[in-house]
Write a structure and sequence with these properties.
CATH architecture of the largest domain in chain A: 3-Layer(aba) Sandwich
Number of helices of chain B: 31
Strand content of chain A: 15-25%
Bound molecules: guanosine-5'-triphosphate, magnesium ion
CATH superfamily of the largest domain in chain A: P-loop containing nucleotide triphosphate hydrolases
Number of domains of chain A: 2
Largest sheet of chain B: 5 strands, antiparallel
Strand content of chain B: 15-25%
Number of strands of chain B: 34
Order of helices and strands of chain A: EEHEEHEHEHHEHHH
Helix content of chain A: 40-55%
Largest sheet of chain A: 6 strands, mixed
CATH class of the largest domain in chain A: Alpha Beta
Structural class of chain B: alpha+beta
Distance between the termini of chain B: 149 Å
Pfam families (chain A): Ras (PF00071)
Shape of chain B: rod-shaped
Largest interface: A-B, 35 and 41 residues
GO molecular function (chain A): GTP binding; GTPase activity
Strand order of the largest sheet of chain B: 26-1-31-30-27
Number of helices of chain A: 8
Keywords (chain A): Nucleotide-binding
Protein name (chain B): CNH domain-containing protein
Oligomer: heterodimer
Helix content of chain B: 25-40%
Subcellular location (chain B): Cytoplasm
């Protein structure tokens, strides 16, 4: 065995998607990771994990490996969700714009849950929340929406004002592929410089000392065991 | 673990996760568990994550994670640091538990195998085997720390004792002991000869020697394998275990003390071989197949399967659904719908083939108890079965066992059947009353839910119904559990006295619902009249919504056959003001028939006003036969009349009724008639003109005073009432009532024809004088109906009044002349009327001279005073002169000098 070191990989960045069932979480992830859209997509069971390397369009140095947990919105799996948002940097809480009231309600539930979670492990940096209004294509084409665009905005803004860790509200359409790259670009751009710096510093120091701390143990052991084996 | 026969073990193989979502060419490669999570690695590099939610019995797939392109060969749980090391394609990667997020820890490449070491104070130490080294590593945060490193060529398997001061490693052909502390390698032995096999090292805790041991397998030849046992000091602990003719345990070996369970996969079949570590003999050999249900581990016929099975032991027990008792403890309702048992068991042995996973666990004791019962049923001997201790069973199993015990005592007709039938748990009787009813009452009674394991037994139950026992059961069962069927069954089979006794406890007689209607019908068919009445009475008391309807039915039933016993009830019903006129009348007559006094008393005091008409009709009908009714009839009429005294119709009816009653034989008996005659005589005596007592009492006042004290009070009251009515009729309505031709009405005639002579003859001087003045009779002082009525007075000529009064006076004088001592009457007359109607002079003129002056003193005194004042002295003098009585003259002189 040998502890291997590939050329330094971009830093992992954990993201969790939360929201009522069928708001389009999985569709959003699929559009982002494979640029596809499937009308007949099945409901997620438990959770799915997808990774995606992403380089910022504006700054090629900002490169991350998104580790995305796409959770199941169905009530049955609610109790599991905390194990997926643990240690996540960003939560994408999705609201279906074509079914605003109930999905907004669930979104608020998740915001609360995350706040409880944040307050219980105070040392970690709190999860940043992005609110995603999905299926924008559906409300655009609507002539008589159940709830007006302005009302939605008012409600969302109220929510953002009352919760400090909500960063932004985005509207997306996985069907038409709009707003999604922008969302992830926003996330990458917003990452602290320190995050990249400390990651690369650490990785570099490990490659520099070839066999560094490990090597020294190795050598010590080698001497000790050679007599036996 | 007990072996109850030589061919079976008290262990089951039960399906655990058998519907994995695997693609066609994807196979299970390894399994492991952590808390309520099961992780299944596949040959496609995927880990299936199953989770147990508290509210569903089975484990549910919650994620499928693509870990690698290569098969997953090991999933190593680090319970303390909550991480998992996954080995796939010789690369080990670390993930977090329980969800398997990647940990950003460097991958380890070129790894043969990994295993967990139990080093004291160093939890989660990992033994890492690579082609050139054996390492012990630990994870510190995101860093891998190598604790020990030993050069060793081609380590392919390893395990340690607990605690791990020694580890045993296998290379391509040998087992070696490695002393970690001292970095020493002690070669053990070769595990293979010519056959290509994988080494198997199984650490376990030996309950007999109380130490950690390792089992190491050795392939002797193609068909035979053996196992060696060593302890932490490298010593052999027991003899070898041999598997002659079974091949090599390539599916793994686990220890479930005191057994070693080994799986042998060959081209054509897979076999589980269980050997005893105590005797080192093979206990059971069982061929494995894709078991669809829980199977006991027992010797069986060869089953061909080309699937490769593996066995592995878990670090911790896993709670799983106990499918082994589904065929007993599931319940089935009438619609055939099954409810799975809640029963769970723990297991720490899993076996899997390429597509499905089973668990191996101890046989649930209820299976043994069930089998024992079946055996007892066959042999008709329940003695052994009934001795079985069921106290340690879990609730569901215990309930099942109690069912069996009940069936056992029932079938063997023991005394304590009810004790079992009535056993209760927190939420009611353990054995459903419907089931007991089915067994005791007969198969026409359907039970609705039953343990699947009992279904056939109960369907085949041949014992005759025992209705007496059934009744005792129902009576003893708390009433809240009486289902409609139970009540029906009880009433159907009970005698009347049992029914009545049962009523006291049966609180379901509170609504006139279909069942209670049906039960009443039943009582009717069985002619249980007492029960019928009781039923109606109870319903009547409790079902307010249907009160009127029940009242009617109840009244009809009561009327049909009323006995003295139910008079009270009937009266209560009559008094409830719920009956229709018709029902009321019918029942009332019935009450009267049975107990006249009670009936009369009721009508008199408690009957509601709205029934007055009926009451009257009833009493009228009956009044011929009884004085009581006659009077009551009058009372009822009166009560109506007093409500509306202007109602002439009732007035007439009342008068008529009183009059006819008065002379009816029931009231006017011979005795009463004699009383009347006596009263007349007494009147004459008391009113005698010879007595100096004025004014004389009128006849009616006399009757009203003296009649009360007579035996025939009824008669006299009626007499007075009839008189009052006649009088009012005449004076108010100007109508003459034609009285019956009876001597009792003699006096009544004076109302229309006030005849002074006749009144005098009647000795009613008082009224004779009244008539003389106002030409009508005076009413008695006491009235019944019209206390305030005063008739209009007709104007009468004063001359006529004088005439009449003088007539009366002459009557008195006549008597005087007949030498009767009526001086007081004369004295009264002159004193009374000289002041108003007749002049003293006129009076003096007709008083005979012989009349003693003494009686006239007062009269004269007044008269003279009068005369004086009116200067009519001359007239007086004339009169006095005329009188030749010297005494008068003398008297007169005296007066003049006054
Ligand atoms: N028109 C339109 N439909 C969408 C869009 N996004 C998702 N949908 C549809 O919405 C339905 C649900 O989408 P999913 O992505 O499965 O929703 P989800 O949030 O993952 O649901 P769960 O897995 O149950 O939590 C699917 O039929 C999608 O095709 C969108 O942007 N526009
Ligand atoms: Mg989904």
């Amino acid at each position: 065995m040998s502890v291997i070191e590939d050329s330094i990989q971009p830093p992992p960045y954990k993201i969790v998607l939360l929201g009522e069932s069928s708001v389009g979480k999985t569709s959003l992830v699929h559009r982002f990771t494979s640029n596809t859209f499937d009308v007949h997509i099945a409901n997620t069971i438990g959770a799915a994990f997808i990774t995606k390397l992403y380089t910022s369009h504006s700054d090629a140095n900002r490169k991350v490996k998104f580790e995305i947990w796409d959770t199941a919105g169905q009530e049955r799996y609610r109790s599991l969700t905390p194990m997926y948002y643990r240690n996540a940097k960003v939560a994408l809480i999705c609201i279906d714009l074509s079914n605003f009231e109930s999905t907004f309600h669930t979104a608020k539930y998740w915001i609360q849950q995350l706040e409880l979670n944040n307050s219980s492990n105070a040392d970690d940096k709190p999860i940043e929340i992005h609110l995603i209004g999905t299926k924008y294509d559906l409300v655009q084409s609507q002539t008589t929406p159940k709830i007006s665009q302005e009302d939605i905005e008012t409600k969302v803004n109220e929510l953002i004002e009352s919760h400090g860790n909500i960063v932004k509200f985005h509207t997306t359409s996985s069907k038409e592929g709009t707003g999604i790259v922008e969302l992830f670009e926003d996330i990458v751009v917003a990452i602290d410089d320190d995050f990249f710096k400390s990651y690369y510093d650490k990785a570099q120091s490990e490659t520099d000392v070839q066999g560094g701390p490990i090597g020294s143990i190795l050598n010590a052991r080698h001497a000790a065991t050679s007599g036996c084996c | 673990m007990n072996i109850n026969d030589t061919n079976a073990l008290n262990y089951q193989i039960s399906p655990f996760i058998t519907n994995l979502s695997l693609s066609e060419d994807e196979l299970i490669s390894t399994t492991t568990t952590y808390e309520s999570n099961v992780y299944i690695g596949t040959t496609k590099g995927i880990i299936l994550h199953y989770h147990h939610f508290d509210d569903v019995p089975e484990y549910i797939l919650i994620s499928q994670l693509q870990i690698s392109e290569m098969p997953i060969t090991r999933i190593l749980i680090l319970p303390v640091s909550k991480r998992v090391v996954v080995l796939a394609g010789r690369i080990a990667q670390v993930y977090s538990l329980p969800e398997l997020s990647p940990c950003h820890i460097k991958r380890m490449k070129d790894i043969n195998d990994i295993a967990l070491l139990r080093i004291e104070n160093q939890p989660d130490s990992i033994l890492v085997l690579s082609p050139t080294k054996v390492r012990i590593i630990q994870l510190h945060g995101e860093q891998i720390k190598i604790v020990r490193e030993i050069h060793y060529t081609n380590a392919i398997a390893g395990d340690s004792f607990n605690p791990a001061n020694l580890i045993v490693i296998a290379d391509g052909s040998n087992y070696d002991i490695i002393d970690i502390e001292h970095n020493r390698k002690i070669p053990l032995f070769e595990y293979r000869t010519d056959q290509e096999v994988s080494p198997i090292l199984t650490s376990f805790y030996a309950n007999d020697t109380n130490q950690s041991e390792l089992l190491l397998t050795i392939s002797s030849d193609v068909s035979t394998a053996i196992a060696m046992f060593i302890n932490g000091t490298g010593d052999v602990t027991r003899g070898t275990l041999t598997w002659v003719g079974e091949g090599y345990p390539n599916g793994g070996v686990v220890i479930e003390w005191p057994y070693a369970l080994a799986i042998f996969n060959s081209e054509e079949k897979s076999k589980l071989v269980v050997s005893s570590l105590e005797s080192l003999d093979i206990t059971i050999a069982m061929n494995l197949s894709d078991f669809k249900q829980s199977e006991r581990i027992e010797k069986n016929e060869a089953i061909e399967t080309d699937k490769h099975y593996s066995i592995n032991k878990l670090d911790k027990f896993l709670s799983i659904e106990d499918v082994s008792v589904k065929h007993l403890l599931s319940t089935k309702d009438r619609n055939g719908e099954l409810t799975q048992p809640l029963s769970r068991i723990t297991t720490d042995i899993l076996i899997h083939n390429q597509k499905e996973i089973w668990s191996i666990h101890k046989t649930n004791p209820i299976i043994e108890i069930h089998n024992s019962f079946m055996h007892a049923l066959e042999t008709e001997n329940f003695e052994e079965f009934l001795k079985k201790d069921i106290s340690h069973l879990a609730e569901e199993s215990k309930n099942y066992a109690i069912h069996l015990q009940f069936l056992a005592v029932l079938h063997s007709k023991m005394d304590n059947i009810l004790t079992f039938a009535l056993k209760q748990y927190l939420n009611g009787p353990i054995i459903s009353p419907k089931l007991v009813l089915h067994l005791l009452g007969g198969s026409e009674y359907k039970y609705d839910k039953v343990f699947v394991g009992l279904e056939k037994i109960i369907e085949d139950w041949k014992d005759e119904p025992d209705l007496e026992l059934l009744k005792r059961y129902i009576t003893a069962l708390p009433s809240q559990y009486w289902t409609p069927e139970l009540r029906r069954a009880y009433y159907r089979n009970a005698t009347e006295s049992e029914v009545l006794e049962f009523f006291k406890k049966d609180s379901f007689w509170n609504s006139y619902d279909d069942l209670n209607k049906e039960l009443i019908e039943l009582f009717i068919t069985k002619s249980l009249s007492g029960a019928i009445l009781e039923a109606y009475e109870t319903l009547f008391e409790h079902d307010n919504d249907n009160r009127l309807q029940i009242a009617s039915l109840y009244a009809n039933i009561l009327s049909e056959d009323l006995s003295r016993k139910h008079i009270h009830t009937a009266i209560k019903l009559l008094g409830s003001n719920t009956l229709t006129d018709k029902d009321y009348g019918k029942l009332l007559l019935e009450v009267i028939r049975v107990d006249k006094d009670k009936g009369v008393e009721f009508m008199r005091s408690k009957a509601a006003k709205r029934y007055n008409d009926i009451n009257r009709a009833v009493t009228k009908e009956l009044s011929d036969s009884s004085k009581g009714f006659a009077i009551l009839s009058i009372e009822l009429l009166e009560s109506s009349f007093l409500e509306d005294t202007e109602n002439q119709e009732i007035f007439d009816e009342l008068l008529e009724t009183i009059s006819t009653t008065m002379i009816s034989s029931t009231v006017c008996s011979e005795e009463a008639e004699a009383s009347y005659d006596l009263l007349l005589r007494e009147y004459e005596a008391i009113n005698s003109l010879e007595k100096d007592k004025w004014p004389k009492i009128s006849w009616l006042d006399f009757v009203s005073i003296s009649g009360k004290s007579k035996d025939s009070e009824t008669l006299f009251v009626l007499y007075l009432k009839s008189f009052e009515l006649c009088w009012v009729k005449y004076h108010k309505y100007g109508k003459v009532y034609t009285t019956p031709d009876h001597k009792l009405f003699q006096y009544h005639q004076f109302i229309a024809q006030p005849n002074i002579e006749k009144l005098l003859a009647f000795h009613d001087y008082s009224n004779a004088e009244t008539v003389a003045i106002i030409n009508q009779l005076a009413l008695p002082k006491q009235t019944f109906y019209f206390p305030k009525f005063t008739p209009e007075q007709k104007k009468i000529e004063e001359q006529q009044v004088q005439q009449s009064l003088l007539g009366i006076f002459k009557f008195y004088l006549k008597l005087y002349e007949e030498e009767r001592k009526v001086e007081p009457a004369i004295e009264h007359f002159v004193e009374t009327y000289s002041k108003s109607h007749i002049s003293p002079v006129d009076l003096l003129e007709i008083i005979p001279n012989s009349f003693p002056l003494i009686y006239l003193l007062k009269f004269l005194e007044h008269a003279i005073v009068d005369l004086k004042s009116s200067s009519r002295e001359t007239n007086i003098r004339k009169v006095v002169t005329k009188s030749e009585s010297s005494r008068i003259k003398k008297l007169y002189q005296d007066f003049l000098t006054v």
